[in-house]
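Final report, closing paragraph on structural work. Over the funding period we assembled a curated collection of sequence-structure pairs, and we close with a single example.
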Amino acid sequence: MTTVLTGKIAWVLLVIGWYVIRYPFERRAKRRRVEKSARGRAETIRMLISLCGLGIVPGIVVATGFPSAASYVPSPIQTGLGLLALVFALVLFRLTHKALGKMWSVSLDIREKHELVTKGIYRHVRHPMYTAFWTMALAQALLLPNLVAGLAGLIGFGTLYFLRVGPEEAMMEETFGDEYRTYRARTARLIPGIY
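Its predicted structure, as stored:
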């Protein structure tokens, strides 16, 4: 099996793993009433940009090879690093969903009887879900040896992240006040001890 085929298969498994982890939480979330939401046109656009970068564009590249001019032959080391990033991303993604439990939401929502989650992976990082997605975007760039597919994930998710993290933190501060400010002061945003 070539490194290109290995990377494509791994990327497909990453997408399947993402869906398998998320699906039960999405079903449960629909049963809980939303008290406050920051959804709207801007959030929909951010989500679509991220979906294009992490799903649609790489899906087209995997299925068709288009645009072939942006493709290159990866080294086994690159593909191996992509596999490690894939495993780390899915483990972190699962830990994040497990810690959030009933508080999980696909968007900027405050649920009925919402509690600030500071346990599990959230003891160390305020936004481990975003860390998982950044790692997925990195895995995609390493696994799919195509400059368009690689950059699409980083740009697509990066757009969502940089336009959403500020409003999300403002919403949490408005909802939880000093409890959130104290939590924010003692945790990193994405990487423990760094950022």
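The CA atoms of residues 171 and 177 lie 10 Å apart. The first strand starts at residue 34 and ends at 37. We thank the funder for supporting this effort.
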